[in-house]
Write a structure and sequence with these properties.
The complex is a heterodimer of chains A (113) and B (114).
Chain A lengths: L3 E4 L2 E4 L5 E7 L5 E8 L3 E10 L2 E4 L6 E7 L2 E6 L8 E8 L8 E2 L3 E5 L1
Parallel strand pairs in A: 2-11
Antiparallel strand pairs in A: 1-3, 3-8, 4-5, 4-9, 5-6, 7-8, 9-10, 9-11
Chain B lengths: L2 E4 L3 E5 L4 E3 L1 E4 L6 E6 L5 E7 L5 E3 L5 E5 L4 E6 L8 E8 L7 E3 L3 E6 L1
Parallel strand pairs in B: 2-12
Antiparallel strand pairs in B: 1-4, 3-9, 5-6, 5-10, 7-8, 8-9, 10-11, 10-12
The chains are: A mainly beta (113), B mainly beta (114).
Chain lengths: 113, 114
């Protein structure tokens, strides 16, 4: 079984809709991250959480919110989706005090029409 | 501030020939550096990482990278390309003293011709 899972894997929605992307991990890591990937831009950090009570904005947090429901779960919400949020979204985890290696989920492809 | 630049957006090689993917970094501190690979429709997989031990780092699938402080480079190499190496590759630097935050390069797409 995969250590980091994301649901859904693909989603098509309309402008203005609220969307939630979910991430679960079985690695026992405290730290979790949400990124978006756009062609030619690499991955950019949206939000990150170092434990259940610690949530921080990344470089592109506008238009997004997150919830850390448990150590193993980290959800990303788009309150009112817009077309330029069409992208591939990745969740990742890492362990506290480790070598900063992050382990990625398979990604969610989101299309906003 | 740390940053990373991948010098080629696309590299094309023939099967059996060497692979070179170039990466330069900027950091005021001794960085932790990584190479990740993303195969089509897949997540990112760690290829290798440098964390101030040996400057020549060996990774999975025959890849290796050399940390050169004088050149601020961390180029990825492989002696002989295989068709299965076709993917996108990301050079990544860890942000100093910010608990594991990573900065990604723009990515290099590697094509392997038969």
């Amino acid at each position: 079984d995969a250590d980091v899972t994301q649901t859904p894997r693909n989603r098509i929605t309309k402008t203005g809709k609220r969307i939630m992307l979910e991430c679960s991990q079985t690695k026992g890591h405290d730290r979790m991250y949400w990124y978006r990937q756009d062609p030619g831009l690499g991955l950019r950090l949206i939000y990150y959480s170092f434990d259940v009570k610690d949530i921080n904005k990344g470089e592109i947090s506008d238009g997004y919110s997150v919830s850390r429901q448990a150590q193993a779960k980290f959800s990303l919400s788009l309150e009112s989706a817009i077309p330029n949020q069409t992208a591939l979204y990745f969740c990742a985890t890492s362990e506290t005090g480790g070598t900063d290696t992050q382990y990625f989920g398979p990604g969610t492809r989101l299309t906003v029409l | 501030a740390q940053s990373v630049t991948q010098l080629d957006s696309h590299v094309s090689v023939s099967e059996g020939t060497p692979v070179l993917l170039r990466c330069n970094y900027s950091s005021s501190y001794s960085p932790s550096l990584f190479w990740y690979v993303q195969h089509p429709n897949k997540g990112l997989q760690l290829l290798l990482k440098y964390t101030s031990a040996a400057t020549l780092v060996k990774g999975i699938n025959g890849f290796e990278a050399e940390f050169k402080k004088s050149e601020t480079s961390f180029h990825l190499t492989k002696p002989s390309a295989h068709m299965s190496d076709a993917a996108e590759y990301f050079c990544v630097v860890s942000v100093y003293n910010q608990g594991g935050k990573l900065i990604f390069g723009q990515g290099t797409e590697l094509s392997v011709k038969p």
